[in-house]
Amino acid sequence: MPTDATIPYEADPTHLLIWLDREIGNHSKYQHLKKSFSTMADPKNETPVALRDTNFDDILRAEGPLPINFEGVQFLLAVFRTVDPCIECFERNQNRCIYFIVSGVLGEEIIPILLQRFPNVFNNPATGKRCHSIYVFCHDIELQMDWAIKYTDCIQIFNFDADVLSRLVRDIADSFTGEAQRLLNENPRKNAAAKQRLTWAHILYQRYTKMESVSLKTELDMVNDLLDQIDEDTASSFSNEMM
């Protein structure tokens, strides 16, 4: 079974979480979400250090996304208080898989701009269809419905940050699993990259089951089966090379 100690690391992570909210620097806000982030653990499994509000101030001052751990998985994080630099970040990172957390007020302003300027940035690379990778956080969901109803194919709305976190964990796990399946279907198969994403997916699925007290037996069994297939394929290739 995968553990944090077995996670391979990428030199340049392909997954980016962008967070836009005027209140992100407020010490009393978004504690569940903030606790899910930690400084990047060393590949040798040194203990990661939880990000605090002071660290988020440092990230706000950074010129680009910074490497972090999200629930034990390697990620990039960029945080903003205003719209314009956030749009610039999307402009520079269209090649990455982006998950976007945004407040209701700023979401109403920026989401139409993003979908017009970068129409494919929230699309599923396998199907070409939009996926629900925009997470709108607000205090009153009903107040957002007038503008948000136009974008139900790509946004999810929440009024509690713990719910944002659990949904994000599940969606990212599903994304890693889908990526791994695509990598395994390539010719030649990209076993190492697929194993990396399946390992991360396994960790996130397990975190989700604890958060929501639910069983994801189907998803976890599928991930374990794919990991077993990769190990068997790798062992077979090694055996053939030794002949």
How would the blueprint of this fold be written?
Layout: E1 15-20, H1 31-35, E2 37-39, H2 53-61, E3 66-70, E4 73-80, H3 83-92, E5 97-103, H4 104-117, E6 134-137, H5 145-148, E7 155-158, H6 161-185, H7 191-212, H8 217-242
Parallel strand pairs: 1-4, 1-5, 5-6, 6-7
Antiparallel strand pairs: 2-3, 3-4
- The name of the CATH topology of the largest domain is Rossmann fold
Q: For the report, how would you describe the main beta sheet?
A: 7 strands, mixed
Helical content band: 40-55%
How many domains comprise the coordinates?
Answer: 2
Q: Count of helices?
A: 8
CATH domain class name of the largest domain: Alpha Beta
Outline type: globular
What is the H/E order? Answer: EHEHEEHEHEHEHHH
**Which range does the strand content fall in?**
15-25%
Oligomer: single chain
Structural class estimated from helices and strands: alpha/beta
- Count of beta strands: 7
Spatial extent as radius of gyration: 19 Å
| pLDDT < 50 runs, ≥5 residues | 1-9, 40-49
In whole angstroms, how far apart are the ends? 30 Å
Strand order of the largest sheet: 2-3-4-1-5-6-7
User: If you average the pLDDT, what whole number results?
Assistant: 80
Label the CATH architecture of the largest domain: 3-Layer(aba) Sandwich
